[in-house]
Design brief:
Low-confidence stretches: none
Strand content: under 5%
Number of domains: 1
Largest sheet: none
Structural class: mainly alpha
Oligomer: single chain
Length: 79
Amino acid sequence: MRTLTTIALILLIVGGLNWLAVGAAQTDLVALLFGGQDSPLARIVYVLVGISALIVLFALPRLVSDHRDHLGVPPVHRP
C-alpha cells in the first residue's frame, strides 16, 4: 500500500506541475508531450493523475497519522 501511495503522490505532483504550467504559461505539458489533449496517451495520464488524487485523498488520514507519529506528536482523541 505504501508503494501505491508513493506512486500516487508522484503522479499528483506531476499533475500539479502541469496545472501550474497551464495557469502560468497556458501550456499543457501532458498534451504537448503526448500529442494533444485528445490523444489516448494524454487521456491515460489525465486519468492516472485523477485516480492518484483519489488514492491520496483516501490515504490522507493514514499519512497524517504516520507523520504525527514520526514527529512524536500525541494522537488527537475525539469523542
